[in-house]
Design brief:
Elements (H helix, E strand, L loop, with lengths): L1 E9 L4 H10 L10 E11 L4 E9 L2 H8 L2 H7 L14 E6 L8
Antiparallel strand pairs: 1-3, 1-4, 2-3
């Protein structure tokens, strides 16, 4: 499996607007080959930002890479820059190959 994450440093006071962008958009992920699940995470607050992370699980790195070249990806990200600045810098991407999974017995 492969986990794709983007970290967002959201400007204090813009948390509600940022969350609304994500909660109201169509991700176009349903039905994409290899897609397992998506999570938007709210993390700790610092003096200059609140940390958020998108967390997408894929069956393989190849499935994720195929999605990034797909029409579904383009549709999901269309208009992404149309909102007033909500974060300090562009999102920071991190990709991880899963080496261990532990589930309840």
């Amino acid at each position: 499996m492969f986990i794709a994450m983007n970290r967002f440093q959201v400007i204090p006071g813009e948390e509600e607007a940022f969350e609304q962008v994500w909660l109201s958009r169509d991700s176009f992920l349903a039905g994409v080959p290899g897609f397992v699940e998506f999570h938007m995470l709210r993390g700790p607050a610092a003096d200059d930002h609140v940390l958020y992370s998108s967390h997408t699980v894929w069956l393989s790195r190849g499935d994720f890479e195929n999605w990034t070249r797909s029409e579904a990806f383009r549709a999901a990200h269309r208009g992404a820059g149309d909102h007033k600045p909500l974060y300090l810098a562009p999102p920071r991407f991190e990709g991880f190959d899963v080496i261990q999974t532990v589930t309840p017995s």
